[in-house]
Each structure stands twice: as C-alpha cells, then as structure tokens.
Amino acid sequence: MTLLEKLQAELTRLSKSERKVAEVVLAEPQATLHKSIASLAQQAAVSEPTVNRFCHSLGAKGYPDFKLQLAQSLAQGTPFVNRHVDQSDTTQSIVEKIIESTMASLNVTRRSLDIAAMDRTVEAFLQAPRISFFGLGASASVAHDAHNKFLRFDTPVQFSDDTLMQKMAAINAKPDDVLVFISHTGRTKVLCEVAALARESGATVVGITAADSPLAQECATVLATHVPEDTDLYMPMASRIAQLVLIDALVTSFTLKKGPEIHEKLRLIKETLRDSRYEKKDIRDLP
Amino acid sequence: MTLLEKLQAELTRLSKSERKVAEVVLAEPQATLHKSIASLAQQAAVSEPTVNRFCHSLGAKGYPDFKLQLAQSLAQGTPFVNRHVDQSDTTQSIVEKIIESTMASLNVTRRSLDIAAMDRTVEAFLQAPRISFFGLGASASVAHDAHNKFLRFDTPVQFSDDTLMQKMAAINAKPDDVLVFISHTGRTKVLCEVAALARESGATVVGITAADSPLAQECATVLATHVPEDTDLYMPMASRIAQLVLIDALVTSFTLKKGPEIHEKLRLIKETLRDSRYEKKDIRDLP
DNA sequence: GAATAAATGTAATTTAGCAACATAATTTGA
DNA sequence: TCAAATTATGTTGCTAAATTACATTTATTC
C-alpha cells in the first residue's frame, strides 16, 4: 500500500491535530513535497512535533522519510488502468487518463500479440507483388498510415477508404497479393464483404482486427487486437494505437528481413526528402 | 524526463568526481534514498559539497530535492527507454522495443504537455465556424485521424494532404477559423508556407509540431511534441503516437466542453452506424 | 470533579545541508 | 613548455531544519 492510500485509509484513526495535517497534505500532495516541516505545521495550524508524530503514525521514520514515501506514492499514479473520462475532468486529468488507457492497451498488446502470425504476415509481404491496406472510418487513417510506411519500399502498395474502390481492388487481386483489412470491431459489413471477395480471388487476406469477429473469419491470418469494452461515448482511441504499433512492428520486421540492400534505398529517400525541409541550422535565420 | 533517465543521459557531461557520485547512485538507487549527503559523499569518496553540486547539475534544487526526484523516478517503474532495433532482433524483441519506445514517448508527452495551450486550442475550436487539419507524409494520416474524430460534431471540418488544396483553404480561411498543422519535424517547407498563408488570412493557426521549429513560428498556439533524435533508419514512429494521443485529448476536452447536449447527437451517430455492423450475437450464424 | 491518560505545544538539542572561501587540477594560449 | 586563466574539488563554519525531552493543555473515566 502506498503512503497516499494509507493516508486515506487511516484518516479516521488519526487525532484531531494530525488530521489537520493530513488534510493539508491530501489537498495538495505535490506541493507538500517542497515544504519544510515548519511551513507544513504552520499551514495545518499545529506545532512541528505534531507533524513529526503524524509522520510516525503513518509508519515513516521521520519527516524526510515521509516526504520520500509521498513522492513515490505520487509518482506511482494509477498504473495504467482504463479510467473513464467524465464531466468533472480537467484538461490535465483528461490527458493523464488517455495516456494511461493507451499504455494499458499497449501492455495488453505486448502480452497477447501472436508473433507467429506476424512472422507469417511479413513472409507474405516479402513474397507479395502488391500489398493493399483497407479500412473504414477511424481505421481508415490507420490503413493510410500503413500505406505511407510501405511506400518507402519497392513493392507496389495501395490504400483505400472507399468501399467501391476496395471491392474492385479485391476482385482484381492476384494470388500472392496481400490485402490487409483493418477494423477495430471487425463487424463492419462492407469491409467483411470486401474481405470475402479478396479471399475468393485467392489472395492472402490479413486482418488487423478483433479475434473471433466476422472479419477475422474471412482472414487467412489474423493479427488480433484486444477490444476493450466500449462503455464510453468517447471513441475507442486506445486500441487504434495498438493497431499502429502493430503496423510499426510489421514494417520494422519487413525492413530487417529485406536485408541491408534496402538501407541504401531508405537513405536515398531520406536524402531526397531533405530538400523539402528547412535545415536545423536555419532556425535563427527565419523571419 | 525523470531523474534516472536524465542521469543516464548526462553521465558524460558530469565531471570526474560527480560521476563517482552518479555511479554510486546508479548502483543502488533505492538505497540512496535513505542516505544522508554525508554518507553518500563518503561512499563516493568525494566531499559533501561535491554531492550537492552533483544534485544541482541534474537540475535539482539541492540534496533533499534530488532525493525526492529520485524517489519519484524509481516509483515510475521500468523507465521506458528508446532502444534501437537492429539486425539481430527477433519479431518478439522488435515488438517489445517498439512498444517500450512508444511508452517512453507517451511518458515524455504526459510530462511535457502544455495544458494551457491545449485549453486555448479547445476554446478556439468551440468558437470556430470551421476547423481544418493539414499534414503531409506520415503526419497526413494523423491529420486524417483528427478529421475523422471531428466529423462527429456539427462544426464543419476539413482535412487535406494535398498542398495545393491546403493553400487554397489557407487563403480562404476566415478569422476565427482554426487551422491545425501537423508536422513531426516542423521543417517541411510547403507546410510552413501554407501556415504562413493561413496566418495572413487572420485565422487561428495551431501547430502540433516540434517547439522552436520554423512551423512553430507561424503558429499562434503550439502544441509541442517531443522530437527524439532521429538516429535511426526506421521512421520516427513513436512521436506520431504522441500526436494522436494529443488529438484524442483535444477531442475529449472539446466534447466535454460542448456540454451534455452533444451527447444525444453522439448517441444518434452511434445508433446510425450500428446498422452497418454485424451484431455481436451474429457471430455463430456466419457462414 | 478530581485523577489519569492522551494529545498537543514549547524549548533545547542535534543534525543535515549549504554557502563562502581556499586550494588543487586542468585547460588554454603564447 | 610554462604561466595565466579557468574549472573542479575540498575545508570550514554557518544556518535552518528535524527531532528529542519536557511542560502544558485537553479529554476521559470513575
């Protein structure tokens, strides 16, 4: 149990004066870290030894030790739990919560990723005469991102968030072509239809989607992403980050497997792009 | 950056004696918490003021403050550090490294975000007759994502990854319109030009980009994202996640500030989208 | 309502941290 | 290579912070 939790729990056990101290600490724990025992005593309107006794009551060896434990307690935060945002949240707490949810999602991804499926996918990419990424809505931007990344290589790559185009592409897919379907829920009807068409064309169908979803059933390989309960009004944002990270990993693995000769090409691309950028040293010279 | 990360990073900057202190601290950080300045000095075989100076070198206000920061740093848990991928990596280790880098990036973002700037941006959004998101290359998909999110509200929103379109949009921007420019480096020339045009139109220009970059200079409000050294061949992937999270936070804050009446609309949208999806119970019935 | 126990405050003591100064080591320029 | 300047480190003594011991107040019990 961290100090702050202990403080909450044993608030009633404390004597009157000690509780006054506790309240000051709980009101702004972060600020307490930079207070001396004297100023804390003053703010709580108690004497210094009372503060000291308060520290001992909480199991600390003294005031400095108390501050140390408080610091650790604060840094601990709530470790990566999905906490829902509500009306009372400040911008600060919104950021905290979103980042923590994202981290929670990443942790789940790390633990649950099917490495074998990823390897199969990369192998398929290496063989493929053409790679396509399809997604709709929020997943469209993930597909878009994947497309951007693969543009750096010499394998032709396409992306679409237009269902008609997707259907045409799916019908025209050749064996060995890899078509990657991205969907958070895996339940979007049209996308499932497109995936079915692709499968019928004999191409390799890969899904970045929820396991056991209708879309997953159309796929030869499923890179499952964890779908947290969507109890919120706010969009499922964290899981999309997991999709992106998954794609990052695919690209990175792909790059490595392509071998060193690809590096020269990447360097060249970088070189070329440099012309469209301001150099770092230019900063001072700008208007 | 937490104190331990900083300590790792600036180890070379430190003077000989200070490094001795650093080594003792790094050897057993946890134990250091319960040492006085005197005993730490003794163990490092240096004088007390040297330890004090060491603390100041790391940005602490003194020895007690140093211990406080160290305590927080330790409580943070595994310090997610950017580890570069190399040829010898397995798919598993690639995933690990990418996730850790992403988490590191998120941690940095959490600590360094300018909340006031975010609040200003949300206020501007609330006033705006129109919101636009512009990005190029990898940042285009981030802009794309932002666009998707804002489509849920009644404020007109546009997105473009086409520089000509962007320019036209910038020129036609009206005062109170908000134009958000997304760029990892903030050094892409065309995007800076577009931002300049937008500024001349009198619209509110917001940048999600590196602080102190040319693009940042064109912006009324900058939501700075941390740019790690791009020593790698592989793309700057982690920082893009930070941009996305930032946008998530903006959208969420925007939603909350819009008040409860927006919730009905969001519910309606959700309801409508449901028709395009397979119901959960349908899974077993599928072919 | 006195006696006792508990809580709180006062004053003195101790200790830790730090600034100012002194000295040593290193770098720089001729 | 050596002197000057700069930087790094150590010594001393002061200040402030934390703690202990003791006194006083406040609550509790019979």
Description:
2 copies of one chain form a homodimer. By secondary structure, the first copy, chain A, is an alpha/beta fold. The first copy, chain A, has 2 domains: 3-76, Arc Repressor Mutant, subunit A (Orthogonal Bundle), CATH 1.10.10; 99-274, Rossmann fold (3-Layer(aba) Sandwich). Chain A has helices at residues 3-9, 16-27, 29-32, 37-44, 48-57, 63-76, 91-112, 115-127, 138-150, 163-171, 189-200, 214-218, 238-258, 261-274; strands at residues 131-135, 157-160, 178-182, 204-209, 221-224. In chain A, helix 12 (214-218) links the parallel strand 4 (204-209) and strand 5 (221-224). At the A-B interface, helix 6, helix 7, helix 8, helix 9 and helix 11 of A face helix 6, helix 7, helix 8, helix 9 and helix 11 of B. The structure holds a DNA duplex (30 and 30 nucleotides).
What name is given to the CATH topology of the largest domain in chain A? Rossmann fold
Q: List the chains of the largest interface with their residue counts.
A: A-B, 84 and 83 residues
Overall pLDDT level of chain A = 82
CATH class bucket of the largest domain in chain A: Alpha Beta
How would you summarize the topology of this molecule?
The structure is a homodimer of 287-residue chains.
Chain A: H1 3-9, H2 16-27, H3 29-32, H4 37-44, H5 48-57, H6 63-76, H7 91-112, H8 115-127, E1 131-135, H9 138-150, E2 157-160, H10 163-171, E3 178-182, H11 189-200, E4 204-209, H12 214-218, E5 221-224, H13 238-258, H14 261-274
Parallel strand pairs in A: 1-2, 1-3, 3-4, 4-5
The structure holds a DNA duplex (30 and 30 nucleotides).
